[in-house]
Amino acid sequence: MRVLVAEDHQSLARSIADGLRDEGFAVDLTFNGEEAHTLARTHQYDLIVLDIMLPGLDGFTLLPRLRQAKINVPVLCLTARDAVEDRVKGLDLGADDYVIKPFEWNELLARCRALVRRGHDLRNPEIVIGDLHIDTVKKSVMRGDKPIKLSAREYALLTYLAHRTGHVVSRSDIWEHLYDSSDEVASNVVDVYIAYLRNKIDKGFDKKLIHTRHGQGYLLGVEE
Questions:
Q1: Domain end among 88, 119, 150
Q2: Domain that holds residue 163
Q3: Is the same domain home to 86 and 55?
């Protein structure tokens, strides 16, 4: 999943970005509102973490511009303002959730996970596809009674496909959602990681869950 973090307090911004990357998210980072606006319009994000008091273009100005541009990605607002009217204003302008600084990291992370699920019309933190079970809180994966150990990138790819269960996902969509602008990767990296996943998820099982649609992309799901 790819996240845009827009926060002008640079040490806090980097701390949030590093924490999200440790959890398997791809993260783009900016310290001003104008660049946040540009990034949000040119990339497909699963979540935007937005500081209200950004220089150049503040969050209260940026939010309605995003919504007017039909950018419906979930937005989690961060602010040092704890007045009720500020929270109400942010929500009315299009924010999906609000966290007041200082905050506990585990709470921020849980809210990020919940908004990503909501953005994909999922409410249950456990995703079940046939006999495949993905616990997005514990970050554990089981196929039948077999625990499956995945690298951070493999897990990120699996959960992205799982959020789109039953739908064909193109290579370009996978690339856009799993890699941030600082990543330098080979052009065949998506195919390589699909092969890694197949080896761990499907190998040894009669029913395959990862399917190729030639010329279109990949699909995770149970097929008769």
A1: 119
A2: 126-220
A3: yes
- Phi/psi at 80 (5° precision): -85, -10
Looking at residue 133, its amino acid is: H
50 shares a domain with 86: yes
How far is the C-alpha of 224 from the C-alpha of 203, rounded, in Å? 18
CATH number of the domain encompassing residue 159: 1.10.10.10
CATH of the domain at 49: 3.40.50.2300
Task: Compute the mean pLDDT over every residue in the chain, rounded to the nearest whole number.
Answer: 89
Q: Tell me: the pLDDT tens digits for 35-44?
A: 999 999 999 8
If asked whether residues 76 and 115 sit together in one domain, one would say: yes
| DSSP structure string for 124-177 | -SEEEETTEEEETTTTEEEETTEE----HHHHHHHHHHHHTTTS-B-HHHHHHH
pTM equals 0.78
Q: Cα separation of 99 and 94, whole Å? A: 15
Q: Which of 100, 119, 138 is the last residue of a domain?
A: 119
With H, G, I as helix, E, B as strand and everything else as coil, classify residue 212.
strand
Tokens 């996902």, residue located: 169
- Calculate the alpha carbon distances from 82 to 43, 77, 93, 104 in Å: 31, 12, 17, 15
pLDDT along the chain (224 residues), means of 10: 93 94 90 95 93 91 93 91 80 91 92 88 85 92 94 90 91 83 68 93 93 92 80
